[in-house]
Amino acid sequence: MIRIDDLTKVYDAKTGPVLDRVSLTIGEGDIHGIIGRSGAGKSTLVRCLNGLVQPTSGKIVVSGLEISRLSGASLRTARRDIAMIFQHFSLLSSRTAAGNIALPLEIAGVPKDEIRRRIPVLLDVVGLSQKADAYPSELSGGQKQRVGIARALALDPKVLLSDEATSALDPETTEQILALLKDINRRLGLTIVLITHEMDVVRQIASHVTVLEGGKCIETGPTFDVFAFPKSFVARSFLSSIVAHDLPPQVQQRLLPSPGAESDPVLRIVFTGEAAHDPVIATLVEQFRIRPNILHGRIDYIDDRPLGILTLIAEGGAPVIDRVLAYLSSLGLYGEVIGHAVRPAAAGARRSAS
Fold first, then answer.
1. Which of 30, 173, 345, 347 could form a disulfide with 169 if both were Cys (CB 3.0 to 4.6 A apart)?
2. CATH architecture under which domain 249-353 falls
3. What confidence tens digit (pLDDT) does each residue in 197-226 have?
4. Cα–Cα distance between 288 and 282 in angstroms, integer?
């Protein structure tokens, strides 16, 4: 549905590119999350997608049309297939919910009878059938965003761009809006591009995710794969509140890079699929005689698939660690030794000596 090739945007030559040779493919019907810190280039990217910002170089193709080459009437026509919802709703206070939804239809020249027929359908899609005559001042934040979504759907777009659409909402309302977007994606086959700085938003509904940093595409792929095996420090830092890839600094400081006479291997196990429910730790104790000292762990669901990360000190496991890793691999799990922990008695002796 969307192909981006070597996209670059420079506002000021002195400060350098806001987007730096970004290449990305978004499949039809995907919910694709684009995540990054403030200044990473997320909002500029989404505005290039609908032609609000003209790229300095590169190519953007949406539904077969090269958006980056269009202008004037041809660009306005192409934008009918690319709708957008915003963080602060952007509703007209002088219009009711029905009036706000009608606006893009009026601008497009849709006959009044057709507009009157479509508005109740759109209100029903977003669960606001009883709020047609309510003004924005009479609506909650979540209801305002639902009106914004209905307005975005008015012209039957192929792509829906969401620019931090849940950032101004409380957690409960955020979950409701995300559930609505997921339902719309499933029912209408709509391609959705989510711009966000919240990894939990991506976890809940995105099928794919792209990580931006400093205007560059750092990492991209299916959401589950990026969550399970992040390749970049930026992705790992975003995931820290959701997936336990990294140990707390206090624990990290205790690790040694190589084994010693008074140390044990520190093992990280990534649980995926059905093996996430297997009694792996019990097997480590019974079969390999390891005394597991659990440091950090969590199980979550990404794209409806279980993902768990568990980090433990495999006390007494140094002689059999290769067999342990082979056993984990046989289950379809990923295991790695991320360091070595000094045994408490040896650590105490070292501190006394110093």
1. 173
2. 2-Layer Sandwich (3.30)
3. 888 888 889 999 999 999 999 999 999 899
4. 10
